[in-house]
């Protein structure tokens, strides 16, 4: 069964005095804008995005030029997920449930997760239709963006294949959590865990009876990595290491125009690939 063939019923959860609706994302412009702005705020200091974008300093605000370019990148990523028949799931803060003393947020997308099922991947034609050319214009001349994405993907896939092979599994057998975030105003309310566990339940629903599929992801954040481990994900050793000679440990490039300053400090950066072997157990323990 393909992931897009299984039915999904929206449901509500309560967290931190708020009520959130967990549902599939819509493809309209307003929804995509809200999701992308939330992601831009969440990933301002992400080392992988620094690597892709070629920044020399970490962006400090979504209102900056770098922040706006980040929004454009994630808008293309999430739209491509929908167009590629992946799963884009959001947690929407229900405004009618707000307390009287709370101000309604114009952007009620509190969190989102982009998934690809086994033998599914982002389609090139989908990325073009999603507007990736805008990001290529923003980042391409600075970083040769496509080349950097390919390097990142190649290293990650090699780690996944190396870990799955001893169990007679291929990368195409796994569910891939491409991206997940919680918008800044809603951090600390357990929404990431709720979306991951929803993904586990859906993956089991799509799998043949008795088969528990592996779930894989990459983590570039010291903040999120322990959360994934708490959910049962294991770090694949050794850590992935890319960008040597091009960026520092933050994913940022050199500051001078010739690109040669502080070359000894351009040691690249590390991130982790992670795998979850038993999402059925994780679901059962949460019920």
TrEMBL record:
Organism: Lentinula lateritia
Top-rank taxon: Eukaryota
Cross-referenced PANTHER family: GNAT FAMILY ACETYLTRANSFERASE, N-ACETYLTRANSFERASE DOMAIN-CONTAINING PROTEIN
Classification via InterPro entries: Acyl_CoA_acyltransferase (IPR016181), Trichothecene_AcTrans (IPR052523)
Full protein name: N-acetyltransferase domain-containing protein
